[in-house]
Amino acid sequence: MCGQAGNLFATDLQIRITKPYLNIPVGNSARMKLVKITGKSQREFPVQLAEGTVDYWIFVNVTEFLGQTITLSCPANVAALSRIYQDNQINGTDSLYKESNRPQFHFTVKRGWSNDINGPIFFNNTFHLFWQAFPFGNSWNTGFMYWGHATSKDMLHWKELSPALMLDSLGSPWSGTAVIDHHNDGGWGKDAMVLYYTAFDRLSGKQVQCIAYSLDQGKTFTRYSGNPVIDSNQEVRSNDTRDPKVFYYNQAKIWVMVLFEIDGMSFYNSKDMKKWTKESHFSGLHECPDFFELAVEGNPNEKKWILHGASSDYFIGTFDGQVFHPESSRLKYAEGAHDFLYAAESFGNMPSDRRIQIAWGRIEHAGMPFTQMMLFPTEFKLKLTKSGLRLMASPIKEIENLHASSRTWASLSWEKANQQLEAIKPGPLHITFRADFSRAQFLKLFYQGREIVNLMAKDFPKLENDIDILIDKTVMEVFINDGVHYIVRKLDQTANMTALRFQADDASMMIKNLKVHQMKSIW
Fold it and tell me: How deeply is 387 buried, as exposed, middle or buried, from its count of CB atoms within 10 A (0-12, 13-18, 19+)?
């Protein structure tokens, strides 16, 4: 083992830390055990420490303990503990991002579990993405969640950093928001990056709202000494008080927090970012709120507010800084959302009026040392349809930068299209085409022998319909007519090497402007 060991007991191991990572073996069938690291500071986390077969390895960054002799404690046998070793690299670095079932243009974490998107934000020419992280295995544990953190220059290629937040005395840092305090309203410094999050106490079940801030552009975060800033458990007679969404409401020069409480979203106001007053409550949406204003049909003089919860359910309405007034019924912007799309959040502090959102993709990855994923970034637009105003989602235009090789065809019958598609190999793909339903009753698309799209004529206009499909290792996202329909599906592994095939009930069914792009890896 790469470390000096002494005082070896059945549950304790002493190691002098000289390298940045501890590599820990995990067994899928092993019982979860609590591991404690004790040095000048303390850390604890649960892990399925392998006592027999090692299924994969996780890692723990122990840079803060460099030069110290730590005690590693765990109720495990000596043989299991002795397989934990320190190194300059994580176990599996040589195959990282090249694993057989690793998505190639959707963000996934190096190791462990990921879920809710937390406070994505643009600051100083850099996109920051935060998420709920459990780096210690492929099954989450709500009492030991971290805030994962990655940065990007283009929302495509991400660099995973050390966690932004870990546990403290108030509990596990659950979901929340990142904002930039341009006017130093909080008193931590001009342009401080401020995180609002829910602290969850795994013993009492309490959920309270807290603050952490960064003065070095998100490299490190300090907890606010006055935490929690909101503790409404007793007032609402429930522990369900979580997921603060915070933004600056310029019209009234106040900060607004949208907080899930019991059965919907409560609206709070603050001048100093610390003292909050509840102004109103809107029932009917569940956890992880996102709330933003969008121009109607791109007209900056006509805007509406969008309020949605963890799934793709949303309301359109107006907002006066204190109360949200709905003007629509409950709507949805995605299909299959609860199964595969959840807890999405939009980027704050964007340099333009674009509203771009990333969602948690609730998709497992068989045989991998990680699970779950982020769906591809989508841009929202508010458009007028025959059914009224609707929120539309479409892939960000930057996707074109991931096109490697492309094939393009003009109008083809679906059978002729299949002849051309024989040259396309399976792999990460971006497919666009236009379908004419003036005669056919349905159009199906198959990938590796599996039906992935079944478009019924009765659901679409008779003439031209634009279809945009993203296919990665484990996920498919379909956007129809600029986001009138947005569908998310899981893809299972298969040995079938046939990439794409169409099928329709009418031989004259035309596939127009067919483009197939092989995708570059973001890794």
Answer: exposed
